[in-house]
Amino acid sequence: MKKLIFIFLLCAAAQSQALEIAGVTLDDKVQLDKQEVVLNGAGIRTKFLFKIYVAALYLPEKMHTGEAVLADERAKRMSFVLVHDVTAKQVLDGINEAILPNNTEEEMRVLEARLNKFSTMFAAVPDIKVGGVVNLDYIPGLGTRVTVNGVDKGHIEGADFYRSLLKIWIGKKPVKASLKQSVLGIE
Fold it and tell me: Contact, 79 vs 150, CB < 8 A?
């Protein structure tokens, strides 16, 4: 009986351990205001053979399709931990480059003022060093909250804005197909 209890406790401890990718340890759940979200999946973003960041998607419950995640109106977080130094301009350029193929011209027109506000937020961000963390949180009733290294940079209204950002990683034309599979937990 003692052996059975020990095995059960060992299995339970293994299930609650945080995930580690490229030396980055990710929490298995985080608190977003009053909502707890769980790690859905995570992966590494590479560009030109360089590891750039570890991306982690947190949701109220596990979901394995981009459509399901985009349709869900509850709290969620897309978190990035840098494994390569970047400038705020590089972050912004990457987002601007990847957002267009995943949104229609009409969606882009509707989002234009909010994308400009988002750009202004990042213009004031200094370089982000290895270990730096960028969180894009969707908080129902508030919108997209942007934090860099734990500092709140502001928020942008609308669930449509957050969906447009998420499409960069889980849309029909993701920045990297293998990363999409990883954050959706299907790899």
Answer: no
The tokens describing 58, both together, are 């947190």
pTM for this predicted structure: 0.88
Neighbours of 165 (CB within 10 A): 23
Q: What is the pLDDT of residue 17?
A: 59
Assess if residue 85 is contained within a domain: yes
Q: What does the alpha-carbon distance between residue 35 and residue 119 come to, in Å, rounded to a whole number?
A: 27
The rounded distance, in Å, linking the Cα atoms of 144 and 156 is 5
Cβ contacts of 29 within 8 Å, gap of 6 or more: 36, 37, 38, 39, 58
Q: What are the structure tokens assigned to 148, written together? A: 């860099």
Q: Above pLDDT 90, what percent of the chain?
A: 76
Give the span between the Cα atoms of 99 and 9, in whole angstroms: 45
- 171 exposure class (CB count in 10 Å sphere: 0-12, 13-18, 19+): buried
Domain that includes residue 99, residue range: 18-183
- Report how many domains make up the chain: 1
